[in-house]
Inverse folding.
């Protein structure tokens, strides 16, 4: 299976859109315009997009609290997302969830999750629904290297395997769980852990969209065919701190700059497609401009959007009470 | 009407809903039993045999034995509910919430709210609670106050088999996450239960006795003790109104306030640990709303602030009983509020 | 009357009452009592009340002592004139107690009969069978929102020498809640179908309220099947129907709100207990009941008037017909009895409402016996 020109445009647009979105959030947060906690996905775009390019609305993903990228990759509306992060009434979740709980079930996005390791059991449930109702859907649990140490994650590896659920576990390992290195916190390897549960697992370079896309294709096809779960260990880097406001003093001086220079996923993508003459620099530049302008529009709209009011305080708690 | 046990009533409720709606599934540890084993299939039919017979009727696709992995399978039930199934998950003992509470109170309870109203999570979590089984500290607690504390959850505590069937069917059909508490001492208790499916709405208290002197508010198994106490006291000339709220969330505040106001004397019977439990909650609500109508201080009948003991000698001392309820009623009858003349 | 020995027995106040306590006698042995005299206080788990003498004469014997708890129907005292000897009183008490003990024992094993079900036209019909299987059949048909237990004070009395069946109409009690039509014609087809399914060729019909219209309609449309008709506070004889009751009965889901509507059913609202209210709530909570009640209401009472008036056809019914009514009926007015031809016997109880067969059970039972043999 090959990526068509349209696919490449779509993939690049989504990656660029995520980057622009996160950079804008970073800026607005620094300016004091965004309340609460935000955790940015910049640098990790190739992973979310590499997986979600294979998915449809009937497929579900569960995200981490670094969830903006997964949302955009899965097709959530950026304007509504931005309004949500600004806490506005016309946000994707009416301003009740914010950055850490952004979700759109209609798009198969089960939510960013404020609880590390919260997602994998939920994704087993989504896969169980797909299997029971024979929807043909698959479900992907994104976890970080931090959540890879949670019991819920291991329990989910086990459940997904004994029930042969259509699941893919994606460990997005950016090297740091909060301020602690995965070299310290993770015993063994992600791949060996998966093998312990009897599921296929591979490690891929998360800066390379094409590597991710290929590994994702295989795992998702396997899940869709009813052959059970797989695990993919995606190695990548985050450009910003664990959360906005994190001074990132735990990283080596120049560490992020070095990654940006040598492993920038957008650059790698550009190089590959222009060298293969699949897309031109002009094509990509146009997308860059369009994304930048669109995100600026999203920010402007979010700032102008109304705040929720007292009438919204006690709605959406129960279906009926 | 045919007599059915608490166990049969719950089983029948789940069976009828599974027949009616193919999205209803059952999952939990040994809800069938024998999975992968060489011997009998449906060996247990649930820890107390409550789900016996469901697997043979509906197959292992819809009656899933889970590994002992509460976070995993409760989370899976929640995820399945959010994506189109209506799971009935069996959290064997409520004490085990300690290992899976996040999936209940941070995930299931909050999806609808956090996602701006766009999620529904129709999961039913059945769980066993309560003392008297000599099951010691980690298998005897009530803990429903902890769930009641969480907005987004509905908490259901049936007091007999009739109530159990109607409330269980309501749980399964309800679009919000519900926690269904089954007292482990009640499974063999029988009352008349109709064969037809029926629902009992949440948040509507049942007044099981009517009397003019004292209002007793009690939960779950305690309702039956309160009824017994009321019947005995009636013969001594003390009339008790007994209120079974049926659900602690939503709570039928109106019925509790009205009946308490009518009698002016209140006893609350709660088997849960005494701090921040339903007894304190209701006492506070009464003081805040009908203080002027109270003729005596409210009396709470609860266990002491201690883990549930193992030894029968100690557990009998620990648990509320009919005699303690009677004594509490007499105490509120014999004390009065002296109000200074203005 | 003068040489009659009359028992005073523990009354049944409300449907759930099983036993009562003689709290205190207010009259001494040897004193004269008149009907309506307050002769004792009785307490039940639900209610304490003054008990008025149902009979007239001299209180010859107190069988029950103060503080004694007795089952409903148990002998509490004996009234007779002086002309009756003490020996006769002793014999009466002995006979009564033996018969009562037998009755209690019969109720204990089998608790009386348990309802059964039969398939009629693809739907389940629940019925309670009682009595002599070889005797002529009597079929009791309840009204709107009722069930076979409405005949709890009547069926047993009719069971002697009869095969009695109290049925749940479609949409009611333990019968299927799906209905092939909810009008009187459809309901009488179900009764007729029940008779076919049970192999009953001909039956005495006793119908209450809407069940009265159903019974009468069956007598009109299938005269061969009907031996006699007893109509208790029946629908089908005029236009009036208390829609406030019908709508309230359907609408109210809480006991406190429903109770005032159920109190409309009887002359003395005191007899409506919490247990009776609870039984109605239990019925209304069942799947399909709300839809069934709405269908019944719109098929039979659309526009606030009864859809079917059979009064003009009464004269054509060959089987004997009688009408029993409570003068204080607030649901279907007793004035509808005025429309019946003189061939129809009419009995109107002054102090009864819409549940005349319960409120005046002994009198109703005697009238049923009269017509059904």
């Amino acid at each position: 299976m090959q990526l068509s020109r349209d696919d490449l445009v779509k993939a690049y647009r989504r990656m660029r859109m995520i980057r622009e979105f996160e950079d804008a959030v970073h800026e607005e947060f620094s300016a004091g315009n965004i309340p609460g906690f935000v955790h940015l996905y910049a640098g990790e775009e190739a992973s979310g997009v590499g997986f979600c390019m294979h998915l449809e609305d009937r497929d579900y993903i569960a995200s981490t609290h670094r969830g903006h990228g997964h949302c955009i990759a899965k097709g959530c509306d950026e304007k509504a997302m931005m309004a949500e992060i600004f806490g506005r009434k016309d946000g994707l979740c009416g301003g009740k969830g914010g950055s850490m709980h952004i979700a759109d079930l209609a798009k198969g996005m089960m939510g960013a999750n404020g609880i590390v390791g919260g997602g994998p059991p939920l994704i087993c449930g989504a896969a169980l629904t797909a299997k029971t109702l024979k929807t043909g859907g698959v479900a992907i649990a994104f976890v970080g290297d931090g959540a890879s140490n949670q019991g819920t994650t291991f329990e989910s590896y086990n459940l997904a395997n004994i029930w042969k659920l259509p699941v893919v576990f994606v460990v997005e390992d950016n090297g740091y769980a909060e301020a602690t290195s995965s070299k310290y916190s993770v015993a063994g390897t992600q791949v060996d852990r998966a093998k312990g549960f009897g599921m296929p697992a591979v490690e891929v370079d998360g800066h390379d969209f094409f590597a991710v896309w290929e590994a994702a294709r295989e795992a998702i096809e396997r899940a869709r065919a009813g052959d059970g779960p797989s695990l993919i260990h995606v190695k990548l880097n985050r450009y910003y701190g664990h959360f906005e406001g994190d001074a990132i003093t735990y990283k080596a001086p120049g560490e992020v700059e070095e990654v940006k220079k040598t492993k920038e996923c957008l650059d790698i993508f550009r190089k590959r497609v222009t060298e293969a003459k699949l897309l031109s620099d002009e094509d990509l530049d146009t997308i860059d401009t369009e994304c930048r302008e669109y995100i600026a529009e999203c920010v402007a709209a979010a700032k102008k959007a109304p705040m929720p009011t007292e009438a919204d305080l006690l709605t959406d708690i129960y279906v009926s009470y | 009407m045919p007599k059915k046990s608490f166990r049969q009533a719950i089983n029948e409720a789940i069976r009828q809903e599974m027949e009616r709606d193919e999205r209803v599934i059952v999952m939990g540890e040994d809800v069938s039993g024998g999975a992968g084993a060489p011997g009998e299939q449906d060996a247990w039919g649930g820890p107390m045999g409550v789900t016996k017979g469901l697997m043979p009727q509906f197959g292992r696709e819809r009656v899933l034995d889970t590994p002992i992995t509460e976070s995993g399978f409760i989370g899976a039930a929640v995820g399945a509910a959010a994506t189109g199934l209506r799971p009935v998950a069996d959290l064997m003992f409520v004490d085990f919430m300690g290992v899976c509470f996040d999936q209940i109170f941070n995930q299931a309870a909050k999806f609808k709210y956090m996602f701006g109203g766009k999620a529904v999570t129709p999961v039913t979590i059945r769980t066993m609670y309560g003392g008297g089984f000599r099951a010691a500290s980690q298998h005897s607690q009530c803990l429903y106050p902890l769930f009641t504390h969480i907005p987004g959850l509905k908490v259901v505590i049936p007091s007999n088999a009739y109530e159990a069937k109607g409330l269980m069917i309501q749980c399964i059909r309800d679009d919000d996450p519900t926690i269904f508490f089954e007292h482990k001492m009640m499974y063999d208790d029988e009352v008349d239960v109709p064969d037809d499916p029926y629902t009992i709405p949440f948040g509507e208290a049942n007044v099981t006795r009517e009397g003019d002197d004292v209002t007793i508010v009690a939960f779950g198994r305690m309702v039956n003790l309160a009824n017994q106490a009321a019947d005995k006291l009636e013969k001594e000339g003390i009339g008790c109104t007994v209120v079974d709220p049926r659900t602690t969330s939503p709570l039928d505040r109106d019925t509790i306030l009205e009946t308490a106001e009518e009698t002016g004397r209140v006893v609350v019977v709660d088997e849960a640990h005494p701090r921040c439990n339903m007894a304190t909650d209701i006492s506070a609500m009464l003081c805040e709303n009908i203080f002027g109508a109270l003729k005596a201080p409210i009396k709470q009948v609860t266990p002491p602030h201690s883990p549930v003991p193992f030894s029968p000698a100690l557990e009998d001392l620990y648990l509320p009983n009919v005699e303690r309820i009677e004594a509490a009623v007499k105490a509120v009858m014999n004390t009065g509020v002296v109000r200074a003349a203005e | 009357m003068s040489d009659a020995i009359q028992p005073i027995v523990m009354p049944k106040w409300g449907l759930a009452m099983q036993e009562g306590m003689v709290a205190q006698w207010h009259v001494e042995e040897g004193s004269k009592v008149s009907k309506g005299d307050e002769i004792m206080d009785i307490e039940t788990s639900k209610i304490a009340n003054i008990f008025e003498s149902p009979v007239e004469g001299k209180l010859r014997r107190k069988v029950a002592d103060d503080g004694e708890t007795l089952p409903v129907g148990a002998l509490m005292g004996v009234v007779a004139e002086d002309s009756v000897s003490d020996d006769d009183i002793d014999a009466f008490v002995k006979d009564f107690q033996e018969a009562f003990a037998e009755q209690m024992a019969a109720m204990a094993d089998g608790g009386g009969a348990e309802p059964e079900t039969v398939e009629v036209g693809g739907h389940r019909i629940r019925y309670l069978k009682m009595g002599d299987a070889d005797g002529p059949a009597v079929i009791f048909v309840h009204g709107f929102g009722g069930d076979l237990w409405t005949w709890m004070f009547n069926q047993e009395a009719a069971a002697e020498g009869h095969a009695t069946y109290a049925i749940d109409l479609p949409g009611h009690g333990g019968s299927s809640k799906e209905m092939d039509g909810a009008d009187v014609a459809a309901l009488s087809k179900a009764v007729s179908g029940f008779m076919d399914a049970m192999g009953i060729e001909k039956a005495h019909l006793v119908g209450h309220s809407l069940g009265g219209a159903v019974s009468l309609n069956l007598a009109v449309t299938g005269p061969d099947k009907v031996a006699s008709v007893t109509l208790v506070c029946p629908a089908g004889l005029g236009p009036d129907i208390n829609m406030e009751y019908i709508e309230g009965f359907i609408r109210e889901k809480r006991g406190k709100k429903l109770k005032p509507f159920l109190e409309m059913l009887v002359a003395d609202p005191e007899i409506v207990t919490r247990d009776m209210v609870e039984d109605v709530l239990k019925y209304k909570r069942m799947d399909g009941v709300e839809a069934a009640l709405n269908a019944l209401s719109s098929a039979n009472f659309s526009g606030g008037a009864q859809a079917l008036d059979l009064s003009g056809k009464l004269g054509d019914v060959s089987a004997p017909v009688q009408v029993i009514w409570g003068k204080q009926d607030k649901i279907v007015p007793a004035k509808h009895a005025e429309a019946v031809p003189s061939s129809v016997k009419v009995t109107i109880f002054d102090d009864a409402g819409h549940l005349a067969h319960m409120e005046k059970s002994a009198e109703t039972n005697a009238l049923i016996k009269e017509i059904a043999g």
Notes: The radius of gyration of chain C is 21 Å. Chain C is about 30% helix and 25% strand.
